[in-house]
Write a structure and sequence with these properties.
The chain is of the alpha+beta class. The chain has 5 helices and 9 strands. It has a domain of about 120 residues: Aminopeptidase, CATH 3.40.630.30. The chain is globular. It comes from Syncephalis pseudoplumigaleata.
Length: about 180
């Protein structure tokens, strides 16, 4: 195993952060660090909002402990530990669900957070009656593709110009076991 699993709370955004607005601002901040501007869900200074068909799963460090350095509370490290570790957005359509975004903070990458978020998303899909979950991924995001494949997603095509002219996406699909 490459590292230690960070203590997580993976839950609907409404239950896991002090308020929905705080959670969405943290998500927007992580999105801006992770993805190019053309791929931002809430571009510019737009106030983030969710639609009724969207669900957000978040991973945050929930230890509630202070980090100490030389016997004193290290405020910067403690603040970092309480920040959003990662998030996943999933859109629920009548016949399927679609993962529309997954991001993990660089501090927490390689610790199983992305895998846990995807696992929780597929569980949510089946709980809500969707037997199929789909997503699109940039062919150059090798780590993301491997993560999805480890979680049972299989390639089922290419979407031309998905990310803009000349930037295709690989379409992946997960099917619930019957």
């Amino acid at each position: 195993m490459r590292g230690t699993i960070v203590p997580l709370n993976v839950a609907d955004v409404h239950a896991a952060m002090p308020s929905v607005d705080v959670a969405l601002v943290e998500i927007q901040r992580l999105e801006r660090k992770t993805f190019p501007r053309s791929e931002h869900t809430w571009p510019g200074d737009c106030q983030p909002r969710l639609t009724t068909r969207q669900h957000v799963l978040i991973a945050n460090n929930s230890t509630g402990k202070h980090t100490k350095k030389k016997g004193k509370v290290d405020r910067a490290a403690t603040t970092q530990a309480c920040l959003l570790a990662g998030y996943l957005t999933i859109q629920l359509d009548p016949a399927r669900s679609q993962i529309t975004k997954l991001a993990v903070s660089p501090t927490y990458r390689g610790k199983g957070i992305g895998t846990e978020l995807v696992r929780q998303a597929t569980m949510l899909s089946t709980t809500l009656g969707r037997q199929r979950c789909e997503l699109h991924v940039d062919p150059e995001r090798i780590a993301a593709r491997r993560l999805y494949e480890r979680c049972g997603f299989e390639e089922h095509g290419t979407v031309e110009d998905y990310y803009g002219t000349g930037r295709d996406a690989i379409a992946l699909r997960w099917q619930a076991s019957l």
